[in-house]
Amino acid sequence: MDAVATSEARRAELVSLFDAVSSCTACPLAETRTKVVFGAGNADAELMFVGEAPGFHEDQQGIPFVGAAGKLLERLLGEIGLGREDVFIGNVLKCRPPGNRDPQLGEIEACQDHLFRQIELIQPRIVATLGNFATKLLSGNPAGITRVHGVEQSVRLGNSEVLLFPIYHPAAALYTRAMLGVLEEDFARLPQLLGREPALVPSEPVSPAPDATPVAAELEAQLDLF
Ligand code: URA
Question: Is-contact 96 54, C-beta < 8 A?
C-alpha cells in the first residue's frame, strides 16, 4: 500500500477505511455484531493503543474501551498527563466475538489488514499493545505478554517503523489486582518513550468519559470525539 504524505490526506484515507470497514463481512462476526468498532481518537496520534476486541458496551456504542477496562485506561492515561484526545485507540478485531470469547485465528487474519492500514495512516511513533493478542500479532512473535511487557522493540509494520511497547491489558488488571502495579509502572515509562517529561503534578481525577454516543455514523465524528 502507498505511503500517504500529508495529515489531511491521511485523515481522508482513514475516513475511507472507516467506510470500508463499517460494511466488512470478511468473517462471521459480521453476523453477530451490533456495530463495527473501528477505533477512535486522534488521527495524528504519536501514541496508539491496540486492544483485543470490542466487548458488550463497545459493540453497542461503536467506540473502543468504553467499559470498565476503558475507565482504567483513561485513569492510567490521566496519570501520565494524557487524555483520549491525545491518542488513538483501536483493537485487533473490529467486531465483538460472541460472549467476549477470545479472537479466533481466522478472525484475526480477516481483520489484520485493517489494523495494519490504520497504523500506516495514523503513523504513530509508539504502538502500545494491550495484552497477548495485539502483542503477538504486531510483534510477529509468539512470546506471551508476561514475558515481554514493558520491553520496547522497534518493528516495521507496512511502511511504518514504530516502537512497539507491550503492556498488560487493563481488563487483566481489573481481575488480577497484582497486575495493576505492573501496568502502572509500564505506563509510567510512556512519557520517556514519547520524549516527554513525566507528568509532574498528580493528574486531576479523571472524569467519566463523555456520553460516548457517536455523533454520526462517520469516522469524522469519532476522530475528535474525546
Ligand atoms: N477490551 C478490548 O480489548 N477492547 C475494547 O475495545 C474494550 C475492551
Answer: yes
Q: Name the residue with higher pLDDT: 185 or 207.
A: 185
Would the pTM of this model clear 0.85, i.e. be above it? yes
Give the pLDDT confidence score for residue 203 in this predicted structure.
47
**CA pair distance 25, 49, nearest whole angstrom:** 24
* 223 CB-near residues (< 8 Å, 6+ apart): 11, 14, 40, 41, 42, 43
Q: Does residue 51 line the site of ligand 1, with CB under 6 A?
A: yes
Question: Cα(196) to centroid of ligand 1, in Å?
Answer: 27
With a 6 Å cutoff on the Cβ, whether 69 touches ligand 1 is yes
Q: Hey, what's the cell of 107?
A: 478472525
Rounded Cα distance, 142 and 11, in Å: 32
Which domains, and CATH codes, for the chain?
A: 3-197 (3.40.470.10)
Say what the pLDDT of residue 220 is: 67
Q: How far is the centre of ligand 1, averaged over its atoms, from the C-alpha of 169 (Å)? A: 9
